[in-house]
Write a structure and sequence with these properties.
- With 231 residues, this protein is α/β, with parallel strands linked by helices.
- The chain is 39% helix and 21% strand.
- The protein contains eight helices and eleven strands.
- The chain has a five-stranded parallel beta sheet, with helices on both faces.
- Strand 10 and strand 11 form a beta hairpin.
- Helix 6 crosses helix 8.
- The longest helix is centred in the C-terminal third of the chain and has 15 residues.
- It is elongated.
- The relative contact order is 0.11.
């Protein structure tokens, strides 16, 4: 799950990104509305949720919402603001925000509101994703493998390995290029490292093999990778 966080208060933004990352969200954090719009226009990056502060340098959070909706983009948006008057909430919701969170707020409430937005989203993500003998449990952020006799085993994955496996499980039997993986699973601002995808793939495959899921992800030399699944 990828989130665009637009918050110009450095301490708050850092705290939110840290909390979201711990919950296995992939977070692109920017400090002004102009950069946010550039990220949203990037066709290589697909976001699950967006968090906009109302008052931003450049394009305001309110204007970002209006632009999204004028482009028929249904991306769920949580608006952050110190404005707590009913008229302000109505203005934000009418501009296209899906929910409204007044500062200051607790991180537990932030996470709860994001989960609620995901449930209401047209791209609703269920609590579990199962492909073959693997199940991603989003509620507990764990991966479970099940052998032919029904025995279950938890696979311990890092955040990045979890995100990588999720990406493949959402696109079974599809060829996925190294460039697609890098664009979708690493922050836009991250420094590109030539072998970062291959290195993560080796680590993920090793853990899958140790849990009886060897050869599940195939390498297509010169093309990319594919998770092979027969229903």
């Amino acid at each position: 799950m990828r989130v665009l966080l637009v918050e110009d208060e450095p301490d708050l933004g850092a705290a939110m990104k840290r909390t979201l990352t711990q919950e296995k969200y992939l977070v692109d954090w920017v400090l002004d509305g102009n950069d946010a719009w550039a990220y949203l226009e990037n066709k290589w990056t697909q976001y699950t949720l967006a968090i906009f502060d109302w008052m931003l340098p450049g394009i305001s959070g309110l204007e970002l919402c209006k632009r999204l909706r004028s482009h028929q983009n249904p991306l769920p948006v949580l608006m952050l603001t110190a404005k707590d008057r009913m008229e302000d909430k109505v203005t934000g919701l009418d501009a296209g925000a899906d929910d409204y969170l007044v500062k200051p707020f607790g991180m537990a409430e932030l996470l709860a509101r994001l989960r609620a937005l995901q449930r209401r989203s047209p791209q609703f993500q269920p609590q579990e994703l199962t492909v073959g003998n693997l199940t991603l449990d989003y509620g507990n952020n764990i991966v479970i493998s099940q052998n032919i006799v029904g025995e279950k085993q938890e696979i311990s994955l890092t955040n990045k390995e979890f995100q990588l496996l999720e990406y493949f499980m959402k696109h079974p039997n599809q060829i996925i290029t190294t460039e697609q993986i890098r664009n979708q699973l690493w922050e836009v601002s991250a420094e590109p490292i030539s072998n970062v995808v291959a290195a993560q793939m080796r680590l993920l495959r090793r853990k899958l093999a140790n849990s009886g899921c060897e050869n599940m992800i195939e390498t297509l030399h010169g093309t990319g990778y594919r998770l092979n699944f027969t229903p």
